[in-house]
Amino acid sequence: MEPAPAAPGPRLGDSRGAERAAASSSLNPTGAEAQPRRRAPAVAAVLPAGGSGERMGVPTPKQFCPILERPLISYTLQALERVCWIKDIVVAVTGENMDTMKGIIQKYQHQRISLVEAGVTRHRSIFNGLKALAEDQPDSNLSKPEVVIIHDAVRPFVEEDVLLKVVTAAKEHGAAGAIRPLVSTVISPSADGCLDHSLERARHRASEMPQAFLFDVIYEAYQQCSDYDLEFGTECLQLALKYGHINAKLVEGSPDLWKVTYKRDLYAAESIIKERISQYICIVMDTKEDENHVGHHLEEILKNELNHVKVTSGALCPPCRDLEQIILEQCYNYVCVNVMSFDFEETRRLLNMLKESNLSVLYPVVVISVYFLDYKSVPFDQKMENLMQIRDYAKEVKKRNILLCGLLIYYPQDEQKLQASLRQGATIIATLIKERNSGLVGQLLVA
Ligand SMILES: Nc1ccn([C@@H]2O[C@H](COP(=O)(O)OP(=O)(O)OP(=O)(O)O)[C@@H](O)[C@H]2O)c(=O)n1
Ligand SMILES: O=P(O)(O)OC[C@@H](O)[C@@H](O)[C@@H](O)CO
């Protein structure tokens, strides 16, 4: 199970992380410390985001293509911002996309971001980012870092551990980069379009991102770069080798480091994000104390049906500390349970808590207002009107990226029938959370 949007892991910035990073780079084979502990390096990141995304085949440059109605680049920025020891993040975007980028930074409250003009090639964009860090520019609060991370803006799934690894390795070797096993064999065609030779796949790797460099190493390499390299090159590690005579340290990366290039990559990225934010569900009920509350039965069935998903319960009783804590833990899925009631008040209170928390700024929050009703014996009359208000309220909270819908679950006296409708209800709830389909907003489903 991939981590949900979580708090940062080991840190380079604080004493523990700095010592661990310094120590790990100075460890000798015996694991004993070979050198005195060194201070943590100042680290900045450069994100090339000036491409046009031709291979994506859509008018919008892929770094601005939406995933769950949020631009792809915002996920990458969030991933880097989660790392507290990266002090500056420099993003290279084209002049025509500068306002778009500024709007994204403002809307999603991104921090530590500086923008520079992109170049006509990826290497030139990266070079512009490095220049912004190198030169003391009058209106810039950027300072030259000891180590610089270079990471494509279209690789959103970068975790702190691989960043720590490449930075630690770069501090020791001068350059480092993430690699992955090749999926396909690399072949070399002859001039007449036939196979000339193939490379032994096991002895080769794919160069991915993030990469990290001692700043002076990569900056001097770019300054010496030929126009051909700047125009046609695709590999920063090669520049460090060619111009800095440094053999970068290669670090095995995780499968999720891939670059969003084709449309299928966007679908894959959306599936991964949906899966990650569906890992935590909270059953909200007016009280938790009553063990026989049907909400607890629903909680147990969801736990049994959904592997690796954390299901908890929270009460709306004021002042409600545990629900506030659950929101703070970034739970993006809430099932508000009403028993033999058409009342909408509980759901309304939950929605107000969610709106005040700003939890839905980064990811859509799913709220399912569940009504346990013995609707085969309780006549539907004007009370049904109460439930229909869900449609209007759902339209309102959708503007805050909260996806609200209703679910009637049959609540018979017969225990066996109740278990069957609970299972049906749990299946519908799991699907709503997993799919996060905004087309179902305001609908009232029946289990
Ligand atoms: N002149 C350029 C070209 C690319 N990039 C960035 O470099 C990263 C990786 O490049 P790539 O996947 O090739 O992006 P595009 O060039 O946009 O894609 P395509 O080749 O399909 O047009 C992307 O974040 C892209 O925005 C950049 O900053 N400046
Ligand atoms: O070549 P493209 O511009 O598609 O993407 C750049 C990639 O080549 C690059 O990110 C990795 O291979 C690591 O250098």
Automatic annotation (TrEMBL):
A GO term from the CC aspect: cytosol
Keywords of the record: Cytoplasm, Nucleotidyltransferase, Transferase
Pathway where this protein functions: Protein modification; protein glycosylation
Pfam family for this entry, one: IspD
Region span, Disordered: 1-41
Transmembrane regions: none
SUPFAM superfamilies named in the record: Nucleotide-diphospho-sugar transferases
An individual GO BP term: axon guidance
GO molecular function, one term: D-ribitol-5-phosphate cytidylyltransferase activity
Subcellular location(s) per record: Cytoplasm, Cytosol
Biased composition annotated in UniProt, kind: Low complexity: 20-34
Reactions that this protein is recorded to catalyse: D-ribulose 5-phosphate + CTP + H(+) = CDP-D-ribulose + diphosphate; D-ribitol 5-phosphate + CTP + H(+) = CDP-L-ribitol + diphosphate; D-ribose 5-phosphate + CTP + H(+) = CDP-D-ribose + diphosphate
All residue ranges annotated as the D-ribitol-5-phosphate cytidylyltransferase C-terminal domain in the record: 279-426
Enzyme Commission no: 2.7.7.40
Broad class of enzyme this protein falls into: transferase
PANTHER family registered for this protein in UniProt: D-RIBITOL-5-PHOSPHATE CYTIDYLYLTRANSFERASE (PTHR43015:SF1)
Protein family according to the UniProt entry: Belongs to the IspD/TarI cytidylyltransferase family. IspD subfamily.
UniProt subunit comment: Homodimer.
Protein task: Cytidylyltransferase required for protein O-linked mannosylation. Catalyzes the formation of CDP-ribitol nucleotide sugar from D-ribitol 5-phosphate. CDP-ribitol is a substrate of FKTN during the biosynthesis of the phosphorylated O-mannosyl trisaccharide (N-acetylgalactosamine-beta-3-N-acetylglucosamine-beta-4-(phosphate-6-)mannose), a carbohydrate structure present in alpha-dystroglycan (DAG1), which is required for binding laminin G-like domain-containing extracellular proteins with high affinity.
Full protein name: D-ribitol-5-phosphate cytidylyltransferase
Species for this entry: Ailuropoda melanoleuca
Name of the gene encoding the protein in the UniProt record: CRPPA
